[in-house]
Amino acid sequence: MFNKGPRDVPASAFLLGLVATANLAVALALALLDVDWWEGIAQSLVGIGLLAGFLWIVLALAHQTPRYLQTFTAALGCDTLVSALALPLLVWSRCSGEGREVVLTVVTLLLLWQIAIIGHVLRQALSSSYALGLGLALAYMAGSVELMDLLFSNPG
Hints:
Helix content: over 70%
Oligomer: single chain
Shape: globular
Radius of gyration: 16 Å
Number of helices: 5
């Protein structure tokens, strides 16, 4: 199922910029379903920063920082793709008020698919087992959800 890895992504700062721009646009569109413009921008930028920092730390600990550009591009591209797939479902559910259970199920499956892909990307980048990559992907997802909630939740 997962034949390609980050090594198959061109090591290009320009490509990373394009992917980051696309990710920012999709993440902002998702955020604007719940928050105002400025908080949406902040959430989107923090999300990209969390992924960038997590990948740098993991690759640095494994002495694989030369793989950072390709790994970050691949992981950010994955996030962009999965988020773009979820966006129309979430918009439809919000606008129509229907199908919430179906949308929740599909979005959960997309999240699990994203974790599996990020696990694969990490496995390839670290030249390690899929179990390690998957564990790191799960840790990243759980940690980023907690940090985003801590930074952006509205008290009260």
